[in-house]
C-alpha cells in the first residue's frame, strides 16, 4: 500500500544453486542479532521446507514504548501481501461459478471511468488503467480515517483512468479495493469473514485476519520509523486498504499459506496456473521472485512502518516470509541473506560504521533542493543529530552519515553527497545520478 519516492528491485542472480542440507542457524542468528544491535531491523522471518518450519527468528520490539520484545507469536500488518489472499478469493468465486473473470465491472461500479471495458481479471493483474489512489498527494492526510464504500468509490472515481484498459500494466491499489467490494456483494459477506471461511480456517492460519485498531495485548505490534531512535508510525484504518492491504499475519502463517496454495489446498490447478501466469510482470496477486536460477512466486507488502515479503519456490518446496514493523536497511538484503543460508550460498555478517555528527554540524545541509532532471524537490531538515530528507508529497526518512558530506538511506539503496560550498546535492540510486541545487 505504502508510497515511496524510491523503488527498489527484489532479488537477483542466475547461476547454479543447491539446497542446503544443514542450515547454519547460528550464523543466521548472528546476522539478525547484528541488525538488532545497530537498530537496522525489527521483525520476524520464517522458512519452511516440505511444509515444516526449518528456521524462524524474531528481533526488535513489538512495542518499543513499553519494551515488549517481538516473539514468534508477534503479529504484523502485511500490507499488499493481502492481494494474494484477495486473488485466491476471487478465483475461488470463479471456480464455484459465482464470478466470471471476463465480466466487466460496470455491473457494480457504473461511475468508474471505462467500467464497461474493464474486466475482473484486469483488476487482478493491474491492467485496468484505474488510477492508484495511494499515489495522490493527499492520501497520507486521510488514510488513518475510516472510509465508507461510497466515499472510497468517489475517491477512485475522481482519480479517473491513467491508460486504456488492457493496453499495459501499472500497479494500482484501487483495483483490489474494488475487488473487495465485488467479493462482498457476490458472497453477501464481509471481506474479513471470507478470509476466515475460505482461507484461514481451512488451512489452520490462527494468526491471520483483517486487522482493526492495533491491540498489543493480543500480540499485535506497532510500527516504527527510525529517526535516530524508533518513532511510532500512524495506523492506516482497515476500511481504506481492505483487500489491497488490510490483513495481519505472521511469517509462520504466511509460509503455511504459501505451502497450502502451491499444494492445491486452496485452488484447483487451473486457477493456480492463472495466478502464476505473468503479463508484463504481473500475475493474479503474485509476482515472480527469482533467486539465482530458482523461481519463486509471492508478493511484497508495505503499510505505515510495516514491510513484508513472502515467496514459495515450488521446485524445492521452500517457502520464505519476512514481516517487519521497523526497518533501517533494505529488507531485500535480509531476504538474500536468509535464502543464501537456505540454499547454501555465501553471505556476510554486515559491518556497520556510522559517522557521528552534532546537530550544529547538520546545519550546513539544511534547505530545499530542486533538480532539472526530475520534477521532485527534496527538503532536508534535522531531528536533533539526525538529518531528515523528504520528497515532495512523500513521507520523510532519516539519512545516516557515512563520511564528511556523505549520507545514505539503506532502505532504498540511496546515497546523498553534498557540496556545501556550491550548495548542491547529488542523489545516487540504482546506478543513476541526479543533481540537485539548493533553492
UniProtKB/TrEMBL annotation:
Q: Name one Pfam family in it.
A: Beta-lactamase
Xref: InterPro entries: AmpC-like, Beta-lactam-related, Beta-lactam/transpept-like
Q: Which residues form the Beta-lactamase-related domain?
A: 43-331
Q: What is this protein called?
A: CubicO group peptidase (Beta-lactamase class C family)
What are the leading ranks of the lineage? Answer: Bacteria, Pseudomonadati, Bacteroidota, Flavobacteriia, Flavobacteriales
Amino acid at each position: 500500500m505504502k508510497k515511496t519516492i524510491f523503488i527498489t528491485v527484489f532479488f537477483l542472480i542466475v547461476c547454479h544453486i543447491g539446497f542446503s542440507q544443514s542450515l547454519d542457524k547460528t550464523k543466521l542468528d548472528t546476522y539478525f542479532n547484528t541488525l538488532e544491535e545497530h537498530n537496522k531491523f525489527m521483525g520476524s522471518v520464517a522458512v519452511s521446507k516440505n511444509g515444516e518450519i526449518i528456521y524462524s527468528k524474531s528481533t526488535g520490539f513489538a512495542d518499543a514504548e513499553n519494551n515488549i520484545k517481538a516473539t514468534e507469536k508477534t503479529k504484523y500488518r502485511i500490507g499488499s501481501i493481502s492481494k494474494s489472499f484477495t486473488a485466491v478469493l476471487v478465483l475461488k468465486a470463479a471456480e464455484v461459478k459465482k464470478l466470471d473473470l471476463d465480466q466487466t465491472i460496470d455491473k457494480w461500479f457504473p461511475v468508474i471511468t471505462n467500467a464497461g471495458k474493464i474486466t475482473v481479471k484486469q483488476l487482478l493483474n493491474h491492467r485496468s488503467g484505474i488510477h492508484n489512489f495511494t499515489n495522490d498527494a493527499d492520501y497520507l492526510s486521510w488514510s488513518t480515517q475510516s472510509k465508507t464504500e461510497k466515499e472510497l468509490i468517489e475517491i477512485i472515481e475522481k482519480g479517473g483512468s491513467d491508460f486504456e484498459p488492457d493496453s499495459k500494466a501499472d500497479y494500482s491499489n484501487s483495483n483490489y479495493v474494488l475487488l473487495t467490494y465485488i467479493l462482498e456483494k457476490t458472497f453477501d459477506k464481509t471481506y474479513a469473514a471470507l478470509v476466515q471461511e475460505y482461507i484461514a480456517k481451512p488451512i489452520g492460519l490462527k494468526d491471520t485476519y483483517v486487522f482493526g485498531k492495533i491491540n498489543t495485548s493480543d500480540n499485535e505490534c506497532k510500527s516504527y520509523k527510525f529517526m535516530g531512535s524508533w518513532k511510532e508510525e500512524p495506523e492506516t484504518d482497515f476500511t481504506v486498504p481492505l483487500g489491497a492491504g488490510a490483513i495481519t499475519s505472521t511469517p509462520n502463517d504466511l509460509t503455511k499459506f504459501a505451502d497450502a496454495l502451491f499444494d492445491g489446498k486452496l485452488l484447483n490447478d487451473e486457477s493456480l496456473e492463472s495466478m502464476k501466469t505473468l503479463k508484463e510482470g504481473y500475475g493474479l496477486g503474485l509476482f515472480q521472485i527469482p533467486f539465482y536460477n530458482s523461481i519463486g512466486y509471492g508478493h511484497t507488502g508495505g503499510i505505515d512502518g510495516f514491510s513484508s515479503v513472502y515467496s514459495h519456490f515450488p521446485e524445492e518446496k521452500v517457502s520464505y516470509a519476512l514481516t517487519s514493523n521497523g526497518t533501517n536497511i533494505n529488507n531485500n538484503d535480509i531476504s538474500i541473506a536468509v535464502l543464501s543460508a537456505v540454499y547454501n550460498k555465501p553471505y556476510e555478517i554486515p559491518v556497520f560504521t556510522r559517522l557521528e555528527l552534532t546537530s550544529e554540524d547538520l546545519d550546513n545541509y539544511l534547505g530545499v533542493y530542486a533538480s532539472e532532471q526530475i520534477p521532485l524537490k527534496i527538503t532536508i531538515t534535522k531531528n536533533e543529530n539526525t538529518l531528515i530528507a523528504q520528497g515532495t508529497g512523500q513521507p520523510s526518512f532519516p539519512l545516516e552519515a557515512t563520511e564528511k558530506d556523505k549520507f545514505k538511506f539503506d532502505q532504498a539503496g540511496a546515497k546523498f553527497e553534498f557540496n556545501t560550498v556550491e550548495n548542491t546535492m547529488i542523489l545516487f540510486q540504482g546506478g543513476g545520478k541526479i543533481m540537485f541545487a539548493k533553492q
